[in-house]
Amino acid sequence: MGKSKRIKVEEWLIINKDILKISIIEEKLGYSRGTISKSLKKNKKGKKRTMKIKEINKIDQFIEKVIDSYLQ
After folding, report:
1. Residues 6+ apart with CB under 8 A from 12
2. Around Cβ 57, how many Cβ atoms within 10 Å?
3. Which among 32, 48, 43, 37 has a CA at the least distance from the CA of 14?
4. Which end of the chain lies in a sparser environment, N or C, as judged by fewer CB atoms within 10 Å?
5. In this predicted model, what pLDDT tens digit does every residue of 5-46 receive, in sequence order?
């Protein structure tokens, strides 16, 4: 069985965070600053912000669109 969409999105963002400008992705998707970056980092209490399903779906569509535009 494949990975869930949440795991795929979070792993892709974490693996590629060195080459991505997360703030630009947040801006393109219309999110407030820190929406994605807060979910990738742990706060002082060791907890991460959990992204909503709507956010995960929107980021997944964005990733697919970027990859598809490169392959065409």
Report:
1. 63
2. 14
3. 37
4. N
5. 999 999 999 999 899 999 999 999 999 998 998 888 876 777
